[in-house]
Amino acid sequence: MSCEDRTGSLLATLAASKPGGRFLELGTGVGAGAAWLAAGMDATARLVTVEMDEDVQAIARRHLGDDPRITFVMSDADAWLTEREMPEEFDFAYVDCRPGKYFRVPDLLALLKPGALYIVDDMLPQATWPEGHQPRVDGFLEQLPEVPNWRATPMNWASGLVVAARI
Length: 167
Ligand SMILES: C[S@@+](CC[C@H](N)C(=O)[O-])C[C@H]1O[C@@H](n2cnc3c(N)ncnc32)[C@H](O)[C@@H]1O
Fold this sequence. Notes:
With 167 residues, the protein is of the alpha/beta class. It has helices spanning 5-15, 32-40, 54-64, 77-83, 105-110, 133-142; strands at 22-26, 46-51, 70-74, 90-95, 112-120, 150-155, 161-166. The relative contact order is 0.16.
């Protein structure tokens, strides 16, 4: 499930606000979001994108692998978050899988610099959601005001976004 164009356009716009930025995407998929981020990034910015499905990420690598700004990581994002040692490394995180969104949020936030942006999508109900997913989304949205060190805004845009800034 690639991000829709309206999400991608916003990703590119926000990416352009971080010249020389260090970008993170959890859940590469086939690379649509990464392509949008790369379109907004300047020449000195860098993107690390993490995916656990080798076949899916191979498609992204085929299309974006020549871009020296992008590092593809084949890993479960949960394990990747555990292995990460450098705090406040990233200026931007687009979290498109469960780790860093529905759990491990404090660990993800620890990787962000003050002022960094955090984006998630798929907050609005979708017919394809499995049983039990709606309460997970509701829980995520309800706890937004209580998360320390960030200011978040849910947006009725595309599949439903949350844009947050690490403070
Ligand atoms: C919605 S798709 C990503 C779409 C992509 N970010 C985009 O914007 O076009 C979610 C991806 O996350 C991957 N994924 C799910 N759980 C994961 C995990 N624990 N670690 C890494 N990747 C995961 C799935 O394999 C899938 O490719």
